[in-house]
Fold each of these.
Amino acid sequence: MSQELVPFFMKQPHVTFATGTMIQPLGGFDTLTGIDLAPFNKLSGGFRFINGGPFQGDDDVIVDEYYAREKKLAVGSTIKLINHVWRVSGIFESGKLARICAKLDVLQSLTSNSKKLSQIYLKVDDPNRAQPVVNDLRDKMPGYSIYSMEEFTSLLTINSVGLLRNFIGVVIGIAVIVGFIVVSMAMYTAVLERTREIGILKALGASSGYILNLLIRETLLIAIIGTVVGIIMTYGTQWLMMHAVPASLTQETVYNWWPITGAISVVGALLGAIFPGWKAVKQDVIQALSYE
Amino acid sequence: MKNFSIWLSLTVCVVAFCGTALNIGWAQSTTEILTRLDQAATSFAGATASIRVITHTGIINEDETQIGNVVVKRSSPHEMRFLINFAGPDAQAIALRDRTLQIYYPKLNTVREYDIGKYKDLAQKLILLGFGMPGRELGDSYDISNLGSERVESQDSVHLQLTPKASEVLKQLSRVDLWISLRTNCPVQQKFYMPGGDYRLVTYSDLKVNPPQLPTSALELPKGAKREQMN
């Protein structure tokens, strides 16, 4: 959209400030954002630089700490993005809805989009007026995508990317089914291999209930320990992602899934253990003792 | 008073008659035009033209102009390829080949490739609206009104108003005005109206239909450019 829309927005009721950015995709989830630094600072409260500072030359970029860590960038490093070599002039604290920023006019010129913007951010005088301002602009500008920041950030979740949401759903479904089968089969094999021990217990006078009780308690203990170890291991993968690809991949711990995963492992393990255990205790002692 | 009534009645009759005559004329004319487009489409192999695109932002009444040239070539009976080269400070080239839309950025020496998949037909029909397109296809996709003859770019043309039939298209494109040259049966001008008052006016000049020399290389983007797959 045209950059000339910025002054138009500035004139709208309750709008105190407006500035635009240009976004260039870099492949995957990474983007290069063109910003007009002074207005962007005015809107966002300014960048907090960990190292270096704002752009000095036309080919300078500033990157956030996660991107710098992942790409091993320092102030003065060079990086090739959109087939153009850039120099890192500063590393800023993340949280500005952008990981890599370049000068707006430079990016517009390189991409043959002079005076064009991808997004325009508005600041209103009162947060409670944000939605009425959005509604008013939607009426004035049908065909334009206009969102409050709340709506906009909700669009950045995986649920807004249809294919990704379906893909994650399928992966979770497969993981649940495979996890269930693996736990069941592991316990099934473990108990089947103990048919002879069950026969010995029966020969020594142990009742079927006693043996099943023993098996169930052991199975429950293994399932619970397995669940806890699995949950602890997720922190390991989280740490690995944070250190290996901090700007590209993030892992959120979803606590609601802890009881679900626990239930999957416990139910899977119990089903896997009870069936062969029941078969073993129902077997003749001599047959159980001769099981190989 | 009596004379006035007679004059009024006559005027109303004349206006009504003219209106009917015009309507009949327009209806016939539209059918004729669509038939002629059907015939022209069968012999259409390609075209070259100069192109001017004016992008109008309604709410701020701003026009932005891009100038360049376009090459269109029929690669198979149901397949068109095109290349649009825009010149000037914002030079870039846009090409459609099979299901891939390519945009070349000379300052980055990069070609970005987008797989437009299911939107391929829509892209072809919109960008190449009127180029080698049978009239029946226009009728299938749009409700057509004939707004009469006009002279555009020194060419006699017929002005058609197209309203997309598909509701999905209507959300993005409320109307298209199309000026078809009576000489070449190709568009002289297209005007795409977006909801909210924005429009894009595309004007073609120096149009050459079925030029004798139109090699496939005329539709190629620079081979040395870096290719980026965007989706």
Note: The first strand of chain A starts at residue 15 and ends at 25.
Amino acid sequence: MVPMLSLLMALFSYLQHQELTAQQVVQKATDKMRGETSQASLTIRTVRPTWNREMKVKTWTKGEKFAMIVVESPAKEKGVAFLKRNKEVWNWIPTLERSIKLPPSMMSQSWMGTDFTNDDLVKESSMVEDYDHSFRGDTIISGRNCHIIQMIPKPEAAVVWGKLIICIDKDDFIELHTRFYDEDGTLLNTMNAYDIKLMDGRLIPTRMEMIPADKPGQKTVLIYSNILYDKPLAETFFTLQQLKTIN
Amino acid sequence: MWLALAWKNLWRNKNRTAITISAIFFAVILSVSASSLQDGVFDNFIRNMVGYYTGYIQVHQRGYWEHQVLDNCLSQNPTYEANLNSLSNIAAVAPRIESYALASSDETSRGCLVVGISPDEENKITSLQKRIIAGSYFARADSNAVIVSEGLLKRLDLRISDTLYLISQGYHGSMAAGKYPIKGIMKFGAPELNDQLVFMPLKTAQEFYSAPGLLTSYVLGLKTDSKLSSTVGAVTELSAGMEYEVMSWKELLPDVDQHITMDKASMFIILIILYLLICFGIFGTLLMMTVERKYEMGMLVAIGMKKWKLAMLFIIESLLSVLLGCLAGLVASIPIVYYLKEHPIRIGGELAESFKRFNFEPVFPASMELATFLTHGAIVFCIGLILSVYPVIVALRINPVRAMKK
Amino acid sequence: MIILVMAWRNIWRNKVRSAIIMCSVAIGLVAGLFVLSLYKGILEDRVSTVIHTEVSHIQLHHPKFKEDYEAKFVVARTDSVLSKLRGVPGIKSISARTVSQGMLMTGTGSTGLQIIGVDLANEKLVSQLDSKIIEGAGFGGKRKNQIIIGKKLADKMHLQRGNKAVLTFIDPESNIVSAAFRIVGIYRTDNAPRDERLVYVQRDDLNSLLAIGASAHEIAIILDDVNSVEATASSIKALFENMQVETWSEISPETKLMIDTTDSYSNIFIMIIMLALSFGIINTMLMAVLERSREIGMLLAVGMNRAKIFSMILTETIFLTLTGTPLGILITWLIVQIYQTKGIDISSIGGMTMSEFGFSSMIYPAFPWEKMPNELMIVTGAALFSALIPAIKAIRLKPVEALQK
């Protein structure tokens, strides 16, 4: 009975693997990177033609709705913290001893000088829900077999892109490469992921680069030094009170 | 000989000569004072608008105006500043560092423009001190305080000596945050300035923006504003080899420039109309003079004077009277224009209200430029000469019998 | 009576002289009136540019709305306000707008702007939005989330008709709302900075995204007559006590400043022109008296008294002025008629090139009916005053000397 069952299980999982839709692949990749909750330490490196800047931060996330970021270095910004609750972003500034809710006028500004905007922190668009996904062939990146998936935003979705081409490892569901296009097919951004390592039991890329296509010599690099997944984090962790005392 | 004869002729009938000369005389006075007033009104308007915030000339790092972010700053350059100051037409060089920030009180927050200034230099160009309606201006260049525009303060519901919290992004993506006591309140007539300006001393602002020794612009004040274009040239030359962009107010405030260009063009039409009237006045006088002198002309031709000699005589007479009229007019218009410059026309009513609102003095001063005098003197002179052709033509075509019949 | 007859005859006796004086008066009037027409044209154009594309005559807001443009401060019971406004006399058109501060994002960048939700049918009667559209046809069809953006913004963000742009703004509960809009048109006004900052969407779309029902944040009103702004504003204020009612001059004080400046100095230049006119007439008349000194001497010699001569010369001038005046008015009216629709292209004047101007380098003169009485008084006054000096000169003539010549 037992071998029979295991055979069935194997067959089932095989079938399931076969039947994965493009959307499910993207779903798996996103879930993998995000987890139920996550706690990470990372370095954000802002690269500009004439200067570079490095910042060490700690992050906590719970699903899509809650996130907290605390800056650990450089010294001048140590303790600056951001809290995302649903669609609001609060900014705690130790030198002022107060937290300020970011007004819409600041949403389009760059987040801490990086290639991300404040709005990227709260963006509601979902890689899974807001796009129509379809397979567009296979490729090999860093020796890994990848699906090439094309993602077209749904007409009503608040997505700025016209098309995404995303490459996801077939076995480990790792997003290795993404290209962002506008509706005319012009390349706008490229995301590359490197240095795949086992972190808290998950095989994930630990270095990611975001490269805007129209700004030579400019990119933002995220390097994860440590990530913990699925450690229980209460919603009450993501409060203004916590924002002040997190250090 | 001709000259003496013409001169005598002029003196023979003083009344007539006086009338002809006065026609020219008033023409010169009117055209000179009209255009002096015109220039003065525009210059004054420009001075007001430019003195409001922009300054006559600004120097930035190349590319700053197109993309106004702190990362396009220039380094404070004492040698360059000294060179600018040594240019003959530069009255003041005010360094500024400005960028947008979020200003907040306990209750609410709001976007604002935080401007770091050198208190003394800035005051020479924009007379900021005069705009203080409560509190005081920066006494020291290193005071750690802010002066806030009235509208912004009201919206933040703050008062003098309350604390203003500022957050922004500093140089190279750093975080800018600081709290400052409010030292003074300024009032601006233009709502977009009155609702968003925050001033602090340059050093304080550079610290706030993590941009020590950096500026977004040098704002230049002029001694003689009419020499704007040559000064822009001189500044550009001085900035050669450096990555600076030199911009005049015309580029900084294109809408004001457009408004003034429009008005100048319409003024030009009005000057033409004025000249038309002047022509007509002079011509009327000359015409009547000719009518009056027909008898005399007929007589002279009848007793054997050659017509061309008669014409010559008339030409010289006209030349003399036009010249006299022009010179007298120019001399007389100097004190008039001077008076209008020193005691400008005061305006009342609604305009005075609007001017007051913007903290402008409600006056229309005249400008006093040598070129204006010479140009309009010359124009009237030419008009006088051209119109004097009429009596000459009459003299050449005179029929002595018919002319004397009257 | 005899004086009237004599004056009349004198006018016809020396036609050249009479023609000159008559023409002086006519030309003076033409000059003065034409300058006034030009200024009226310029001012009307400027006021109407500001009013009819930007601020409208009167705007209504929730008293707190303009402080922070918060979506929750809508005009309370917009529908009833609108229907009450329709009962106010003198109102020509009304547009209810939903206004939201927000952000436009594309793949390459984002920019802050003001999103205005309008019903195009009403809005075009207030801001003439439809006539400013240079690409595309404006809102049309049933499709949701259409947007019209300014040329300047389109250039800055590299957007074209048919492109997609994501708008983000804050709803009354302070939630961030985002939605994708499709660019159906590109507009352009003379005010480029404004074109960069304002985008138009359909009010129904914006209202449903903000979930504010049929409310509006701003009610813009155009009146039949610009001169009744203050009166209408105060009667609207009386109707709605809890509302901020502003006139165009309160909304845009800079425009008011520019207009008042132009208006004021135009008066100064009218004065100068009138002076020039007076000098012209005085000189001509003086010469005329000189020329007539024989004749006047004769009249004095035959026993006509000086008072009669004085009034004769004055009467002559009055006749000439009276004939010159309607002539002047007629000529000006004709000139204005010609240029009123054609316009005067001032870019060709003074060697200034077209590029120095924006798009409106045309002046469309307008006949200054309201300034006619004033103008007539000035011209007639100048003519009479000009006649006085020669008339005085005339009665001072000594008959013997005058005849001797």
Note: Confidence is low (pLDDT under 50) at residues 350-359 of chain C.
Amino acid sequence: MTSTRRQFLKGSAGVLVAAPAILSSVRSYATPDVLAGAGIDYDKARSEGPVRLWYSDQEPDVVEYVKIFTDKTGIPVQPSRLATGAALPKLKAELQTGNVSVDVFNCTDDGLFDQLREEGLLLKYETPALSNYPKEYKSADPGYWTTFYINVGPMAYDTRYVSEAEAPKLWEDLLDPRWRKQIGVQVVSAGSQYAWWYNLKDVVAPEFWTGLAAQKPRSYATSNQMMNDVNSGSLKIGGKVSIFQYTKAVRAKTPLKIVLPPAGTPASNAVTGIIAASPRPNAAKAFVHYLLSQEGQQGWNNIQGSLSARSDVKIPELPSLAETRILVPKDFSDYRSAKRHKEFETVWNKVVGF
Amino acid sequence: MNANANSKFGEAFIEVRNLTAAYGQNIVVRDLSLSVAAGEHLSLLGPSGCGKSTLLRCIAGLEDPLDGEIVIDSKPVFSARERINVPPQKRSLAMVFQSYAIWPHMSVCDNVAYGLRVKGVKRSEARQAARRALEMVGMESFIDRPATDLSGGQQQRVAFARSLAPSPKAILLDEPLSNLDARLRANMREELKELQSKLKLCTVYVTHDQEEAMAMSDRIIIMRSGRIEQEGSPTDIYARPRTRFVADFIGASNIAEGTLKAINDSQAVVDVRGAMLHCRVGDTAYAPRVGEPCEVAVRRIFPQLATQERSDLVNQWPATVTSKTFLGDVVEYVVEYPGGEFHVQATPLVALNQGDRLFVHVPPEHAMLISTAAREN
Amino acid sequence: MTGANATAGVPLRRSHRSWSAAVLVPLAILAAFLCIPLLMLVSSAFNVGDPQQFPVREFGVDNFIEVLDHLDWIENTLIISSCGTLLAIAIAIVISWTLCRTEIPGRKLLDLLIAIPYPLGPLVGALAWHQLGSTHHGLLNDAYRWLTGSHSSLINTSSLTAITIITALFEAPVAIIMIGAAMQRMDPSLEESSAMLGGGLFRTAVTITLPLMLPAILSAGLFLFVSMGGAFAIPAILGADERIYVVTTAIYQLFQGFPPRYPLAAAMGVVLVTIALVALWLHGFILRGKTYAVITGKNYRPRRIKLRQPVKGILIAMLWLYVVVAVILPIGTLLLAALQPSSDISFYPGNWTVENFRFVAFDFETTRKAIANSLILAACTGAIGAIAATALAWVVYRSRSAGRGLLEQATMIPQAFPHVIFAVGFLWTILLLPLPIYNTLAALLLAFVILFLPLAFRSMSGVVVQLSPSLEEASRVSGAGWLTMFRTITVPLLGTGVLSTWALLFMISVREVSASVFLSGPDSQVLGPAILSFWDSGGMPRVSALAIIQAVIVLLALIVVRWAVSRSRVAMTN
């Protein structure tokens, strides 16, 4: 074959191969309003395929929220529920094999997330919404992780089984012998449980924890499960529930009451961030952009019933951020440290009898 | 020891030379040679464990011998020296198994036609052949029935029909009647014999039942511990057992042990505890020498019992009846004589009782001298 | 040299002592898949350096010393294992004796119903009994309180006793089948001679039947002991309220920790495996030389004893009690819960809804995928497992190669691994090896095939052994080559046996939870972990709906098994 003919064949073959790509890219999508200013290539975001989201929140809530996002942006999402404790080794394993299957990680353990940031595993993405978040609700170098809801952890009880008079008002009331074996907490691997202990330990006496262990509290994998037992009467006090459980209960007209002691209620940041190794950066950014926007925050927190870090978001059933005394971590490097985690594990294993 | 084909039948169709075979860890066939002619019916008779089934399976190709040669229809199918081992499907033999091996998932027709279908015969032709084969065994009305419908005896016939359908040149049978009850067995034996005489197939038939072997065979090989103990026609073996084993196996015998006093080509005298027993010599090649211990076999039907002594007879002694057993067609007496004991089978017409004194006479031509020397092979 | 007509067939002088490739290759594969996970487990157990470091660099015994701090886990496991085994064996003896040796009405129905609890699975049982017997909200306790007006509860399913009993109830059918099979192979004249000599019913049963059954009973007992030691679902669901941990649930918790505490988990695993291996060795020692597979022996028609009242009534009541407690109540409760719109149970059909079923089967992607994945995984496990088991049974029982006995032993070894332990070792194995099967169904498939191999082998060896070699020899003598023989004789005759093994594996694969909870990932969700995770999230109606769907799938497969078994019995009677 002569060289010209070969070149011609190569060229036409190349055109044939490229034709679909060219044609599809010729058809450009209009960026939806909600993603305006997101700083992404929208067409790329659409073609990158479904955003793979890891989360540990309640499945129905996430599914509902994700549907709204996809409706508004046309970008599909593939959510997978993972307990935080299970997610990290999986992530590490996937990074090892080079086959990362997660783009956006919604995590209830902010300390863990900061660790990831330090290891360079997160993508820095500065969405314009960041300016609405006070500094304790985002990474010190903004853009790596941001709080997408504040997980406040009050006590809770059902007035059908516990009267308001006898209900605990202070944290120390949990040590009352009448609540023996009737207090619920979460398992040691729950990120929010660590934060709760970390933030509470500074306002209670050190003996509080041994006292709590002596009460033989029951451990639950999720607060949802705990709430079921509170509502059915088999558990009298939810020692640490998530505030959105309260919101949901109010909406379902369940007689649930929460206790926000004057000393303060521990809370943890549920944070969102993009994994640097993600093969779908545009789609991931679109997701985070929307989640942190006012519309996304209002949508998500309304669905779940939690507190947003943005002051321009209001959930009708809850007091506003300004009205409640919340205990959040101040020193992140201490909060993140392995030393503290080990301390927590030792204390908590005793508390739950593991 | 060779057991060559009866010359009446012509050339050997199946030849086995110096075959040695094992079953598991044991050698069960030792350096055995035999041949079977086309049209001849050979029975391999012996107790269990003597190697007869293994030998048959070696001929079929279902077992691999350790050494020796097997030639079928002038073609070597096994040779240890030349490393030949033709697989069973290529040996063109027919075989009937002890368990009949009727395939339960097929109809009778499919079972019988299998051998033809495997060779590529068209379905309709194969069905014809199957029908003919089934007619031969009287099972043609079962042709389309499922195999699971058959009783034991019916399965046996179908197994036979299956082996005949491809018109084989030789057929191997491994104790085909042993799973049937006595009456059925007797009937089947008759039928098989009829079929035999019609078809004149080269047959190798393994059995442990001496009646079967005698009824059906042109020639019998008695096997023991992997070797041939004796071979010959049924009457031959019956009349002239060479060893105690054969005498015991075929027919019911008395064995008298004694010392050889005199011998010539055809007769001998044995001292049985003082009683002089005159007997016949079967095969001088195996006869013991004077003064050596030996045995004499006397079939139970032959001793004659009489109340009177007769003067001109040898082998006559006074005797006492020590026991009497009524077996229906036959009455068996045990009589004590100076040399020991004889079991005597008599008709019920001879009415004797326990304790009766009489005379027992053994015609010398019905007493066989048996060697006790170790057999050479 | 060779004759002109010579046809080279099978090799000459096949020495009966040589090891053929058919034995060596499977042995090598099995050895690899059993030893490597075990090695990973053991090495992690001795790891005193970074818990997540693979391969392990620093070795020490610290983890085992730490195990001593948690002896209550081992104690709980041993209590459940030993007491549960005793209870299950007792149940099994009574039930199998009554079903096999006596005449009672409704025998066939009882036979079918009693086979259900095992494939139904401990997960279903645990969920149901939690719903029935939890102190505050359990249906039975509510009924009791309503009936008697008392404030206390009748039963507490969160206690160690309850866990033991419920585990025993759901594992008993295995023992029933094993002991029943032995009873059917017993020569009835052994009992009849006792009767002739004057032995009454009870005396005969206790002094003749029972001792003769002892090998089968011991066999079943040791199998159950190991199986219950690895119980996961029941302690996980019922033990949470009272903070009762067993080794398997403790391992699971340790895996959830931050960082996951692999070495301690591995040390616990090693302890459990050691106990199981000792039990297995003990079993082999006691039975010395007898094989595991149910083989040979003529099938007698056992004489059936006609019982008199009140014994008859008592036994029938006991059997039906078992059926109620292990089948009817659990399925009924879950069905009831699945039809509810909320966690409160209403008995009024007007309030019922099928919304939950629709949700988990169609609307909710995670569960929809889990159901689909489970079906695919189960079908593949069944296919590969049945074929592998057939090939292995063939080599063990038909070939004459040396090493067959060893191959059979090796095939049975996965029994000694509690599923959780194997899954853990297997997980580390596949992470370390350059196989990209992590987080795929392939990882689960491989693990399942190995774990269920003993069961499949046991099932197929019965079929292979019953297939008389003369059926194939007749075919070959008739002129059929190997392939034709295979196609026309072997495959059709084995067919129903293979089908029943397939269906058996299908059932077991669907109901498996202990191994899959470790090996399944976000992309490879299957029913067991999905149900557990759903349970964690709360919402009894939806969990129940999912559990009912699993139960239906399993029951359909059970029907296939029984149909196939009855067909193969017809084909084999010759």
Note: The radius of gyration of chain A is 24 Å.
Amino acid sequence: MRVVEKRQLLSAEEIGRTLQRLAHEIVEKSGGTANLALIGVRRRGVPLAERLATTIGGFTHSQIPVGTLDITLYRDDLSTIGPHPVVQSTEIDFPVDDRDLVIVDDVLYTGRTIRAAINGLFDLGRPRRVRLCVLVDRGHRELPIEASFVGRTVQTTDNELVEVRLKETDGEDRVVLVERAL
Amino acid sequence: MVQRLTHLLGIETLTREQITFFLDQAKPFQEFQRYPLKKLATLRGKTVALAFFEPSTRTRISFGTAAARLGADTMALQAEASSLKKGESLMDTVRTLEAMRPDSIVMRHSSSGAPAFVAERLGVPVLNAGDGMHEHPTQALLDALTIRDRKETLEGWNVTILGDILHSRVARSNIYLLSKFGARITLCGPAPWLPRDVESLAPGLRRSYCTEEALEGADVVMVLRVQTERLHEPALPAEEYILEYQLTPKRLQIARPDALVLHPGPMIRGLEIDPAVADGPQSCVLEQVTNGLAVRMALLYHLVGGAAPEVPQTTKE
């Protein structure tokens, strides 16, 4: 699939400032850090969750646990004909029961990934509350899913993609809007 | 021409990359066994036929549980060994299976090559759960996973396989797998169960009729089940087997201090293995069972769902 870059949505500096703001928002709207834990959705949700936890730790002096969640086994498209994707590990080494969880992902689009993430979390226990934090909300929801913490909301068409690049996974911090080359 | 992995018939034709892929894919399923809610919808709506034509409790339950935890339905077929001509009854078997339209077949049969026979004729993935004296690929994979987890690598270990090598499909599959990873394998057992031509299974295999000699320097000791029906053959009474070949604590000390003890099960305590060894810190038998579930889930996930494009392919000869 060929794509053409249309415009940059967030520079490295803007990503940094956005994450700072999101970290403060999360703590503010959680009434503190007691019981709070972040769950990064593979792949790019993971470094985002880790950065948020580090930032929160910096200004609250408490360590927020971070788990990683692979949603492959909970996808809703596995019964369609085609190869099954490679499964990665889910690593949540703290109990989920009664926790105040924030799922962290890079882009919120149809909502199906988050539906799968919720399914995955509920297989592990019964959290007290689950909310969602995303770097970019690009609209076009197909399920009733909403993010409590949003970095940037962007209007997109179905032909466009929001590409989040992070130092940890892609070597640079940048968010761009690209279009499928027809 | 590149062909994807459709069936799991044996280890012999798998590449290192394919084996490593499935061992890696077993890891998330190992973690899954610790979840409070062990039920996925990944294979929902699919049917896995468990066609066991030889008695089996452990492998059948393991595959059945793996399928169920992935959300699949299972069809259990347990037929007694037929007295009819083998070819004839196997074709009937194939037709019966076909009529039930499963999405995949897990098969154990007393004839070597039976799963391959079925795979050629039916259009669904076939997983070999043990065929005659030929292969038991999932056993070798779970053994490899156990070794890799305990020892952090699968490369280059000294492995001693102890027991009835001749009749053991577990031994064969393990020999194929471990030799692909550079293992130095020593086969040990009573002479009638250790014919010279087993050496042709893989390069560099050693044979020994002496347990003490075979255990020297071993990093992994695989103890094979004694198939008690064979003890009535003139060659070997049970007492003699115990005396010469039982893995006792004293014999285990000859191996490396951190050597692993593996057994495919079911164990006959006091026959091929001393209970102290079976229950000791070097014994991996319980991990083998858990890993069996994880490996079988990973295989069903990919084979019943179709291998992902990133899965290393076999090349068509």
Note: The two ends of chain B are 9 Å apart (CA to CA).
